[in-house]
Amino acid sequence: MLKRIDPSQTKAWTQLESKAREMREKHLKDLFAEDPNRFEKMKREHKDLLFDFSKNLIDAESLELLEELFSECGVKEGIQAMLSGEKINETEGRAVLHTALRNFSDEEILVDGQSVNEDIEKVLEQMQDFSDLIISGNWKGYSGKTIKHIVNIGIGGSDLGPLMVYEALKPYHNHLRCHYVSNVDGAHINETLKDLDPEQTLFIIASKTFTTQETMTNARSAREWFLRSNASENDIAKHFVAVSTNREKVIDFGIDPTNMFVFWDWVGGRYSVWSAIGLSLACGLGYKNFEKFLRGAHSMDRHLAEADFKNNIPMQMAALGIWYVNFMGAESEAIIPYDQNMHRFAAYFQQGNMESNGKYIDRNGQKVSYATGPIIWGEPGTNGQHAFFQLMHQGTRFIPADFIGFAESHYTMGDHHLKLLSNFLAQTEALMIGKTKEEVEAEMKAKGSSEEEIAKIAPYRVFEGNRPTTSILGQKSDPESLGALIAAYEHKIFIQGLVWNIYSFDQWGVELGKALANTILPLLSEGGEIDKDASTKGLITYIRNRRGI
Ligand code: F6P
Predict the structure, then answer these.
(1) What are the start-end ranges of the H helices in 236-379?
(2) Which residues are near ligand 1 (CB < 6 Å)?
(3) What pLDDT band is residue 1 in, cutting at 50, 70 and 90?
(4) Considering the chain, what is the average pLDDT of its residues?
(5) Which residues sit opposite 177 in a β-bridge?
(6) Catalytic residues (predicted)?
(7) Mean pLDDT throughout 163-177?
């Protein structure tokens, strides 16, 4: 079981508070000036990936204190408990074993004393066989044509993971086209299906529970759309498969259980891209690439288990996040990939991070007295530079940011990639060093500005700098690097949850809205007495009037 230590009551916490007061007075420029080897000392490498932590507003002593905090909070023991299949998701009585899904070692992993290795292998084989059939064209639709389009219907973890990875690995796409439908807004399924041919479309209904309103609604609409072609009920088996933990519900929906790909309750929804939820990836990228993706994550799992604090990339990422959130006053973290294909990466970790660590009750059932999970946001660079970077450079918020990029590009046209990379480096440099008043004045003077103009305009052109960033670089965007990178972020989130003394693998906070939506739906469709607060009642009445209910 996980320790239940209030981190704010540890010895390290108090020391970190006073250390932070000291560090708030420092400038990153000075830290580099004091130590010419700062980059060498603070960079970490794993396979192709380089993590440069040196542009963070932190020093060796702060990191030592964070290491002590980790040890007082039982981080190592917590990691061990997760990896060995203990039921650390105590509020749901479940183990947390997404790492087992990408375990390529001989190590046997037990849940309730039973090995899960064989079950995992079986499903991987099933995914391989199925994706081979679809890709080769040996799987035929009801009219004898091959499958061209795959529509994954899911939401949250059953959508964001495969969608993000499919987009990120565009250069690895084969001739199939994968589409992802999540929103219950009919626009999503209608706009997706309007150009597709039912004879050549395969639906993957992806839902851990197979009860999620949005997914079931979209799945039923997809079935109706399919049956509006010349297809009959008997043809459904050739065009609908399911990925779920809930066999009964899959059968109830009318999907042949032989077309079902299972996963297990010890796989959290937002950690399920490694399971059969990745079926669209096996099809759209080819199984070999899907396996490479799993292997990349596995290598990061080994690294997590084996490296000591100082060399452990997820631990360093987690420590920095805690430092900023709990001691330096950060409320959010930006993730900015300089890779257009990674445009859903920040959205993916919005769920990963905010659904995991957006909690205010600790493992003792008490309200926490310190900040937990930050707000995660981000968009690709360079686009962000022309949108929200102004606030990052000169706003009043303190926003640590991760910049992610690759030395080489799959796209060799022109000099796009070097321009992209030079912007990446320029932004992290500018955020760090800023521009002093003296520099601005000298620059304006050299350009012939009058004294009066300089006095008036110079203050607006000053950048304080001292905005921290972590730069993450890889060789070239590929399945292994992406797998390792995602796993590093996953572990960062888990480690932070361990320190914050919260349960990172439940998500009770999403239930209330779902339950209330079920009480509102009949009020909108059938009418009747509205027993709601005045605002909700007024809004329901507005909709009813406009819709003539
Ligand atoms: O509502 C939140 C949530 O339960 C997520 O945790 C999950 O990823 C998503 O809904 C989808 O759930 P399911 O896969 O059961 O349809």
Answers:
(1) 236-239, 247-253, 279-285, 287-306, 313-322, 345-357
(2) 155-158, 207-209, 212, 215, 269-270, 355, 507, 510
(3) confident
(4) 98
(5) 149
(6) 355 (proton donor), 386, 514
(7) 98
| Backbone phi and psi for residue 401, each to the nearest 5 degrees, phi listed first | -135, 145
Q: Could you check whether 7-73+307-413+468-506 and 111-290 share the same CATH topology?
A: yes
pLDDT on residue 549 = 87
Does the annotation mark 98 as catalytic? no
Quote the ipTM score.
0.98
Task: For 33-74, write each residue's pLDDT tens digit.
Answer: 999 999 999 999 999 999 999 999 999 999 999 999 999 999
**What CATH number belongs to 111-290?**
3.40.50.10490
Domain 7-73+307-413+468-506 adopts which CATH fold? Rossmann fold (3.40.50)
Sorted by where each begins, the domain ranges of the chain are: 7-73+307-413+468-506, 111-290, 516-547
Position 490 pLDDT exceeds 90 = yes
Q: How far is the CA of 270 from the centre of ligand 1 (A)?
A: 8
In this predicted structure, the answer to whether residue 344 has a pLDDT above a threshold of 90 is yes
Burial of residue 528 (number of CB atoms within 10 Å: 0-12, 13-18, 19+): exposed
Q: Which of 291, 355, 480, 490 is catalytic?
A: 355
155 Cα nearest atom in ligand 1: 11
Contact 123, 264 (CB under 8 A): no
Task: Point out the ligand 1 atom lying closest to the alpha carbon of residue 244.
Answer: 14
Q: Which of 175, 194, 386, 447 is catalytic?
A: 386
Q: For ligand 1, what atom is nearest to the CA of residue 510?
A: 1
